[in-house]
Amino acid sequence: MIWRACRNTLPTKLNLTRKTIIDNPTCDRCSSNVEDSLHALWGCSGLVKVWDGDRWSFQTREAFADFKHLCGWIMENEKSPELFAIRDPKQVAQKRWDEIKTANPLPNRSRPQPIPKWTAPPPNIYKINYDGAISNADNKAGVEVVIRDCNGEVIASLIQQLEQAYQPVEVEAITACRAVEFGSEIGVDCAIMEDDSKVIVKALRNKDNGLLSIAPMVNDVSLFSSLYSKLSYSHIRRNVNEVAHCLARLTLITPNYTVWMKDVPFRTLPFVQAYLATL
Ligand SMILES: [Zn+2]
């Protein structure tokens, strides 16, 4: 409205008279002056109560040619944009934006995502999780396997130390080979092999022996897989493969070869129990 008043486009009686809509421009409030924008909003004696107070004391001191002149004077002399409801557009926009944000809070982007966790296989199928570990300092590697049923109960687990620090992908391939062999040894018939190495999972799925260093192991896994009635390969994130991962570290400090039936080593028990506690 302030803008329209400055532009003299308000439907004041003077403007309506100029457009021949009415024929008398006299202010209805005071019946003594022509009602233009300045008079209607500022000068009319009927507005005394509105502009009462020290803040507006200049009303009686200063004379203005029109409403635009009045606004210019306020901005120039009072240094207060809030005076006469004239506000800094930036401040108004910021205030409106703050109000909108308060009313419609944005989704919290830092909200923590649900932590992925290991899931048990469907009934009558076992999950064979495996992982490898390497210690270049000791020139050793280790393989580990843990087999669980549809209730998350451990059927068997093993760790085996290797007297050589292989390349990571080689250790993973050796471990996959040992895992599929171990499952077959204890009589598992339907299983999902689960590993945190995408390279190995892809190679086993496609029976891809293109990588020379792991070709013999991929072929062996393929041969052992024929002993199962159903065997599939699944990728799992490392932090979800924590039982296998923890076991693999254990292999580096445990010589030889150890099998636990219906159990896992004490060190990895908390991870198994944590899963069982969520059931
Ligand atoms: Zn008047």
UniProtKB/TrEMBL annotation:
Q: Mind telling me what this protein is named?
A: RNase H type-1 domain-containing protein
Show where the Reverse transcriptase zinc-binding domain sits. Answer: 2-51
GO molecular function annotations of the record: nucleic acid binding; RNA-DNA hybrid ribonuclease activity
Instruction: Give the CDD domains listed for this entry.
Output: RNase_H_like (cd06222)
Classification via InterPro entries: RNase_H-like_dom_plant (IPR044730), RNase_H-like_EbsB-rel (IPR052929), RNaseH-like_sf (IPR012337), RNaseH_domain (IPR002156), RNaseH_sf (IPR036397), RVT-Znf (IPR026960)
Domain of life here? Eukaryota
PANTHER family given in the database record: BNAC02G40300D PROTEIN, POLYNUCLEOTIDYL TRANSFERASE, RIBONUCLEASE H-LIKE SUPERFAMILY PROTEIN
Q: Lineage of the native species?
A: Eukaryota, Viridiplantae, Streptophyta, Embryophyta, Tracheophyta
| Organism field | Lithocarpus litseifolius
Q: Which residues form the RNase H type-1 domain?
A: 129-249
